[in-house]
Amino acid sequence: MARWSYVFLSAIAVMGANAASSVLDLIPDNFDKVVLKSGKPALVEFFAPCTPLRYKKNRHERLTDSGCGHCKNLAPVYEELAEKFAFAKDQITIGKVDADEHKDLGRRFGVQGFPTLKWFDGKSDTPEPYDGGRDLDSLSSFISEKTSIKVRTKKAAPSAVELLNDQTFKQNIGQDKDILVAFTAPWCGHCKSLAPVWETVAKDFTAEPRVLIAKVDAEAENSKSTAEAQGVKSYPTIKYFPRGSTTPEPYEGGRSEQAVLDFMNQKAGTHRTVGGGLDTNAGIIASLDMIVQKLTAGGSLAAISQEASSAALGLKDRYAEYYVKVFEKLGKSEGYVEKELGRLEGLIKKGGLAPEKLDDVVSRSNILRTFTAKAKSKEEL
């Protein structure tokens, strides 16, 4: 009884898996009815399933893989294609034939390699070979041209992740940006899990001109040479390239948004938080902050202000001048810091600031708080 229960449940699981697919499985029993005599055109993929590595009879011979790597690469694209045209399933069939299991169907239509795509007009048994690109856009365009069916798609927002190829990889690496690159493959499940995190992290760093979150399709014709040159053996492989260097550092941290943010903040000297905001250290310059601390040591504001002005001259940080400005304002008004900080916090609370403006307000607020903290410490003394 247990044996029959297992078989029954397994069959249900298989049926559920097939039902979840928008691609129609074609077999000898239904092929002619669906493809040749329905009057409805069909795009059919003849494929060989990917199977595990297995030993040859001679144990000293190398392992062989009877699976089709190109079929594996096409599978998610073909599934997405079927999903896009699912609304028109009464006008177009998108199906597939396991030509390894149903060899007679493959031989009948002259299939010699995998995957082979053929277009059937629904009226005859003479298909037209499909020789176009195997990306989603090419396949969709082909079907639309053949049937006049327009795909219903929402315009996707442009990706914040930079897709690098062999040419653009060389143009970007080693220049003035800290770059984190994910080497991925279209069929890789872990890569698909990483994709939304990668997109979110890229958006978090949108306002950082010297940080680039990128990816390389390690199996695409225009970028697989780069993956090979970088020694990529598994997916996803993540590498960090410091600005000015072509020597990468492997990223071996967590794959959450927070983990990747922490890594890049530490490497690039940025202060981004989850969601793309800035942390409480943004804008603060360590050398000038040490000078601010002298306000608690009893020194004169005039002398400390002069020291800050001299120290700021050699700094390229945009907020060095702001430190000097705050010292000058304090010399004219003792309550300047508290008043200005209140104004900036009000702007943040009100909302509606452009991202760049918000970053600036947050950074200046952080600097003002260091003055406030030092002033409070002085009062406590």
Question: What's a concise summary of this model?
Answer:
The protein is of the alpha/beta class and 381 residues long.
Summarize the structure in words.
The protein has 381 residues and is α/β, with parallel strands linked by helices. 46% of the residues lie in helices and 12% in strands. A five-stranded mixed beta sheet has the order 1-3-2-4-5, with helices on both faces. A five-stranded mixed beta sheet has the order 6-8-7-9-10. Strand 4 (116-120) and strand 5 form a beta hairpin. Helix 10 packs antiparallel against helix 11, helix 11 runs antiparallel to helix 12 (320-332) and helix 13 packs antiparallel against helix 14. The N and C termini lie far apart (84 Å). The model is unreliable at 1-19, 51-66 and 375-381 (pLDDT under 50).
Distance between the termini: 84 Å
Ranges where pLDDT stays below 50 over 5 or more residues in a row are 1-19, 51-66, 375-381
Biggest beta sheet summary? 5 strands, mixed
**What's the helix count?**
14
Q: What is the C-alpha radius of gyration, as a whole number of Å?
A: 31 Å
The H/E string reads: HEHEHEHEEHEHEHEHEEHHHHHH
Identify the strand order in the major beta sheet: 1-3-2-4-5
What is the average of the pLDDT values? 86
3D shape: elongated
Number of E strands: 10
Strand content: 5-15%
* Helical content (DSSP H or I, runs of 4+): 40-55%
| Category from helices, strands and their pairing | alpha/beta
